[in-house]
Amino acid sequence: MTEPHSPSAAADARHWRRSRRVALVLGSLWLAVWLAPLLFARQLDVDLFGAPLVFWICAQLAPVAFVLLVWRYERGMEQLDAQHRAGHVD
Q1: Dihedral pair phi/psi, residue 11, rounded to 5°
Q2: Which of 18, 40, 51, 86 has the highest Cβ tally under 10 A?
Q3: 47: left (phi over 0), alpha (psi -120 to 50) or beta
Q4: pTM of the full structure
Q5: How many CA within 13 A on the CB side of residue 42?
């Protein structure tokens, strides 16, 4: 167990703050990708191959964006964890 004011505790707190920031930014992007087509559905009222453009965005683009955001989260967390392990002394 680390002491509250030890360098290790400060590094752990910094790592936790960065981890939360990554999750918050990517979660906000996902919310925008998911919510924007629904909010602007009337303005995006264009037919594309017999279906509204919003349908195509929600059915095709949103899942691809989700997978890319999960991939970016994994890479970002892997980098943060590697930095934390490199600077962390056990």
Answers
A1: -65, -40
A2: 18
A3: beta
A4: 0.73
A5: 1
